[in-house]
Specification:
Shape of chain B: globular
Number of strands of chain B: 11
Strand content of chain A: over 45%
Radius of gyration of chain B: 13 Å
Helix content of chain B: under 10%
Order of helices and strands of chain A: EEEEEEEEEEE
Helix content of chain A: under 10%
Number of helices of chain B: 0
Radius of gyration of chain A: 13 Å
Largest interface: A-B, 25 and 23 residues
Number of helices of chain A: 0
Order of helices and strands of chain B: EEEEEEEEEEE
Number of strands of chain A: 11
Distance between the termini of chain A: 36 Å
Oligomer: heterodimer
Chain lengths: 107, 121
């Protein structure tokens, strides 16, 4: 199974900040990497697929990069609605696996 | 607008069974693979199973393999997850998820609101 490791596990930032979350795969997954946002008590929302492509309707403040084993999600100009938990996911092979999540909190 | 509405969750005793359903609308259901994912209380996301658009190919996580069966009724735009021999560790919110085409190499794009399964005596 492919293990997905996110760092950091939690992150404190202020409104207006730019933050970066890292996701590492235990083996190469090409660009079959997605990012999801989840707010408390809500279903996950798809943000990025193919490592760097934005889902329809997702603001351009979210950006993704990487290929192979190392990936990043960057969120610029943080707003209150961006504080949530973020998960990466590989869909290169079964079983599909998720990172453990990064909780983004307001400083 | 794509909508996925799960139902069928509830409280069940260990060893019991439950059948989850997911009603889909807003897209051509039979053209897309679908998945179930779950989230235990306070924990992260876990993929559970996936099914092809025609329903003839399924994949399962080891944690549910042999105890769960995923199926679909394309005439009714409905997805199912039959769960048997339930364990306490199956307690979670179960999400129905639409894949962008196939789930592998295309990914997941829309999630339902989830249905809660609680396994407890």
């Amino acid at each position: 199974d492919i293990q997905m490791t996110q760092s950091p596990s939690s992150l404190s930032a202020s409104v207006g900040d730019r933050v970066t979350i890292t996701c590492r795969a235990s083996q190469g997954i090409s660009n079959y990497l997605a990012w999801f946002q989840q707010k408390p008590g809500k279903a996950p929302k798809s943000l990025i697929y193919g490592a760097s492509s934005l889902q329809s309707g997702v603001p351009t403040k979210f950006s993704g990069s990487g290929s192979g084993t190392d990936f990043t999600l960057t969120i610029s100009s943080l707003q209150p609605e961006d504080f949530a938990t973020y998960y990466c996911q590989q869909y290169n092979s079964y079983p599909i696996t998720f990172g453990q999540g990064t909780r983004l909190e307001i400083k | 607008e794509v909508q996925l509405v799960e139902s069928g969750g509830g409280l069940v005793q260990p060893g019991g069974s439950l059948r989850l359903s997911c009603g889909a609308s807003g897209f051509t259901f039979s053209s897309f693979s679908m998945s179930w994912a779950r989230q235990a209380p306070g924990k992260g996301l876990e993929w559970v199973s996936s099914i092809s658009g025609t329903g003839d190919i399924t994949f399962y996580a080891d944690s549910v393999k042999g105890r769960s069966t995923m199926s679909r009724d394309n005439s009714k735009n409905t997805l199912f997850l039959q769960m048997n021999s339930l364990r306490v560790e199956d307690t979670a919110v179960y999400y129905c998820v639409k894949c962008s085409s196939g789930c592998l190499r295309n990914g997941m794009d829309v999630w339902g609101q989830g249905t809660t399964v609680t396994v407890s005596s």
